From TrEMBL:
Residues 100-158 form the Surface antigen domain. It comes from the Bacteria. This is RT0821/Lpp0805 family surface protein. InterPro entries: Anti_2 (IPR032635), Surface_antigen_Rickettsia (IPR016364). Transmembrane segments: none annotated. Keywords: Signal. Pfam families: 17kDa_Anti_2.
Length: 160
């Protein structure tokens, strides 16, 4: 359950980091929550893909709820510059040596974070994959997550 929560936090933070500006806005918070619910539901279903249909349904529902909460909070406080810096750090971490911390900081908003590739290897499909640990501090609140991303044939990365 802890791995599911952390994985959802990472996926939601990557997918939803740009859903807000520095000032509070209900629309961005709602949008972040809805996108987070969708991403969380997909992540929950993917994590339980080899389980029974009732377990898969429960994981999808739990993922959607956790994604809603995380996405809403992140969408509430992160601005566009935070999102860009977070994405840039994640992108650098796809090429950084395993164990190297890639940090970002937005002095304007006070938000900051880091991404660390913690392990790499190959997926059963043959794709090169890396496991990441991410920490984001938004509005004084620390969120941590773990996730895995695999390199696609076109060179882009996809979180699995």
């Amino acid at each position: 359950m802890r791995i599911l929560t952390l994985g959802l936090a990472l996926a939601a933070s990557l997918a939803l980091a740009g859903c807000a500006n520095q000032q509070y806005d209900n629309t961005r918070q709602i949008g972040g929550g809805l996108l987070g619910a969708g991403a969380g539901g997909l992540a929950g279903a993917a994590l339980a893909k080899n389980s029974s249909s009732s377990t898969r349904a429960a994981a999808t529902g739990l993922g959607a709820v956790l994604g809603l909460v995380v996405g809403s909070e992140i969408g509430r406080y992160m601005d566009e510059q935070d999102r860009q810096q977070s994405y840039s750090a994640w992108n650098q971490a796809t090429r950084a040596p395993v164990g190297q911390t890639v940090s970002w900081n937005n002095p304007r908003s006070g938000n900051y974070g880091s991404v660390v590739p913690v392990r790499d290897g190959y997926h059963q499909s043959g794709a090169y994959c890396r496991e990441f640990q991410q920490t984001i501090v938004v509005g004084g609140r620390t969120e941590r997550g773990f996730g895995t991303a695999c390199q696609q044939p076109d060179g882009s990365w996809k979180t699995i």
